Amino acid sequence: MHSEQYFLIRKSYINHYYKIFINPFFSLSSIYLSIYLSIYLSIYLSIYLSISSVQCTEEEYQQFCDKDVRKELTILSDVNFNSWSLDSTQKVTYVLHMGWDIFKNVRLDMNNFIRFVLTVRKNYRNVPYHNWTHAFSVAHSIHNFYISNLISLSLSLSLSLSLSLSL
Fold first, then answer.
1. What is the DSSP letter of 21?
2. How confident is the model at residue 55 (pLDDT cuts 50, 70, 90)?
C-alpha cells in the first residue's frame, strides 16, 4: 500500500471516527456548558438579590439617623415591661438606646450600629415565636440584667459585649 493511500484511508477513518464519537461529545459538551452557565447565572443572581435584600434600606436608616437615642428611657428598666405594646419602629429605638447604654464605655459608631439593628430586624421572619418581638424581649431582659449589675459584675467586658451582641 502506498503511503498516499494509507493517509487517505486513515483520514477517512479519522473523519468517520470524529463524526461518530467525537462530534456528539462536542455537541453534548456545548449543551452541558449552556446548562451549566444558566445554572451558574441563576445562582449568582439569587445570591446577589438575597444579599441586596438582606440589608436595611437607606430610607429605613434615615428614619433613625436623626433620633437622639441617648435620652433616658426609664420604661426600659421596668421588669414588667410589655414588649407587645410597642410597634416595630419603637422597638428599634429602644434597642438603639439599650445598645448605647451598654456600649457607652466602648467607642461605638452609632451609624453602623443603627444599620446593624435595622438589618437584624429586617432578617427576622414573621413567625409565631422567634420573631423581632421575641428578640426585643430577650435583648430587654439581658439589658436589665446588665444594668442591674447581675451580669456586668461577674463577666469581663469582652464576655459581656459578646453576650450582648449574640442576641
1. I
2. confident
Please check whether residue 18 is in contact with residue 26, taking contact to mean a CB–CB distance below 8 angstroms. Answer: no
Residue 94: alpha-carbon gap to chain centroid: 22
Distance CA 7, CA 9 (A): 5
Query: Which residues are part of the catalytic machinery?
Result: 130
Give pLDDT, residue 106.
Answer: 77
What are the E-state strand segments in the chain?
none
Q: Encode pLDDT of 113-158 as tens digits.
A: 888 888 888 888 888 888 888 888 888 888 887 777 655 555 565 6
Tell me: do 35 and 103 sit in the same domain: no
Return the DSSP state at 108.
Answer: -
| 34/107 same-domain check | no
Rg (alpha carbons) of the chain, rounded to whole number: 31
For residue 76, how far is the Cα from the chain centroid? 28
Q: Is 156 helix (H, G, I), strand (E, B) or coil?
A: coil
Domain encompassing residue 11: 1-54
Backbone torsion region of residue 149, taken as left when φ is above 0, otherwise alpha when ψ lies between -120 and 50, otherwise beta: left
What gap in Å lies between CA 166 and CA 160, rounded to an integer? 10
